[in-house]
Design brief:
The structure holds two protein chains of two kinds. Chain A is α+β, with helices and mostly antiparallel strands. Chain A contains five helices and 21 strands. In chain A, a hairpin with a 5-residue loop joins strand 1 and strand 2. Chain B is α+β, with helices and mostly antiparallel strands. Helices cover 26% and strands 39% of the residues of chain B. Classes of the chains: A alpha+beta, B alpha+beta.
Chain lengths: 357, 72
């Protein structure tokens, strides 16, 4: 409840953006009558939301005090007109008005919001796998890996092929130490940040060796990918996620479109779902070594909470359906946004193909 | 009306030059493309500086925080 109150108190303009993004992500299945998606409408400009923002401001305190209400904001009705959106624990809440000061009220069952706590768990413990743990070989994709020469951890994105050999696909900054790596350096599972004692190198933890990476330009030039591959074997690395994930990615990739539903499995936040918020994006990304500009990027926002956090770098982002077509390679993020390189550019830069179904 | 790609090509550099802007791309609202602008924080000066629309495309502003590479 604390998180939802904080949302409610955020300035109207911020609330507006958040709710609209959410409404877009959910528009094809949240309509109470199952109507066609509001996104299919072709209006040139959004409707005037000022009356809704004013109504929200006047009634926010009262509405938020009611049991079963988790949040309030401004958004659109299924018809595309302005609405005050009330987020509820589970569907209808008795006594809520149909309109506020003449503005339609739209109910959106979101369930309660909560802060995302770090994953805890013992490697190999019962229940679902801890992707930061140590896995028996062949290790699944989506798990912790790192370069032998740094105490860090990122994610094993996918198994890829080139000329009959198999490789690990991840980021330059996971496998190749941000341009500092040399071919032949060992790639460890888990990454040294996740070993016990932390930063140690357990015997036989190498699952491959750095093979090739795309240089990151930190001098103001444009980048498209933060990507690298490490030579491995099918005996060391499998091509499906750990249990609870999407399994094998498809060998056929897809280009991102705004609104597309996606998922990923990674070392820190495990398997999460989200949607594409922006494409063709130019982004300034902070690294230890400086700022790098990336162009033609894919921006993802999470369905619930962050789509990714530190340690998820290198995760493969795939479509959120049974075919699991690769869309992007995750490498960066902010509080609410995750950034990925378009997967087609990643694969062509390294001359590899996804080893999947 | 120019395409969203043309509009992004023309205006990305000047938007990215605004202090606090970390990303500019193509978004979508009500089925129409938007100019999607990511900011560290929506400050008053950014609120004043960012236009509501550019060449007919709505400007959508999102507080993303700083964008960082995500190793642990």
């Amino acid at each position: 409840m604390k998180a939802s109150h904080a949302t409610g108190r955020a300035s109207s303009r911020i609330g507006l953006v958040v709710v609209l993004a959410f409404a877009a992500a959910c528009s094809d299945n949240t309509g109470p009558t199952g109507d066609s998606p509001s996104l299919a409408r072709g209006g040139q400009q959004g409707p005037d939301l000022r009356a809704a923002i004013a109504a929200q401001a006047r009634h926010e305190k009262d509405i938020m005090s009611r049991t079963g209400v988790e949040g309030i904001g401004v958004g659109l009705t299924d018809q595309g007109t302005a609405a005050v959106v009330i987020m509820t624990t589970n569907g209808a809440v008795g006594g809520l008005p149909k309109t506020l000061d003449g503005v339609a009220v739209k109910l959106m069952p979101t369930g309660p919001f909560s802060a995302i706590l770090p994953r805890k768990g013992k490697p190999g413990g019962g229940g679902s796998a801890d992707p930061a743990g140590t896995f028996t070989r062949p290790v699944p994709i989506g798990v912790s890996i790192g370069n032998e020469n740094e105490c860090a951890a990122g994610t094993l994105g996918a198994r890829v092929t080139k000329g009959g050999s198999v490789y690990i696909l991840s980021n330059n900054h996971v496998l190749a130490r941000q341009n500092a790596g040399s071919p032949g350096e060992d790639i460890l599972q888990p990454g040294r940040y996740d070993t016990s004692p932390q930063c140690s190198i357990p015997a036989n933890s190498s699952i491959g060796t750095l093979s090739q990476f795309v240089q990151i330009n930190f001098s103001g030039g444009n980048n498209t990918v933060d990507a690298a591959i490490a030579s491995t074997t099918a005996g060391n690395v499998g091509n499906a996620t750990f249990s609870g994930g999407y399994g094998q990615p498809n060998h056929v990739t897809r280009s991102a479109t705004v609104g597309m539903r996606v998922q990923k499995c990674g070392r820190t936040t495990a398997c999460t779902h989200g949607s594409i918020a922006s494409i063709n994006a130019t982004i300034n990304v902070q690294y230890d070594g400086g700022v790098a500009t990336f162009v033609n990027q894919v921006v993802v926002t999470g369905q619930r909470g962050a789509f990714s956090k530190a340690g998820d770098s290198g995760s493969l982002i795939v479509t959120d359906d049974a075919s699991a077509n690769p869309v992007a390679l995750l490498f960066a993020g902010g509080q609410t946004s995750t950034i990925g390189n378009p997967i087609g550019a990643v694969l062509s830069a390294l001359g590899v193909a996804i080893d999947g179904k | 009306m120019p395409s969203i790609a043309e509009v992004l090509t023309r205006h990305t550099d000047s938007l990215m030059a605004m202090p606090g802007v970390v990303g500019v791309g193509q978004g979508e609202r009500n089925g129409s493309p938007t100019v999607y602008v990511m900011v560290v924080q929506l400050t008053d000066s950014l609120r004043r500086a960012l236009p509501d629309s550019i060449e007919g495309y709505a400007v959508e502003v999102v507080e993303s925080g700083k964008i960082k590479a995500q190793p642990e």
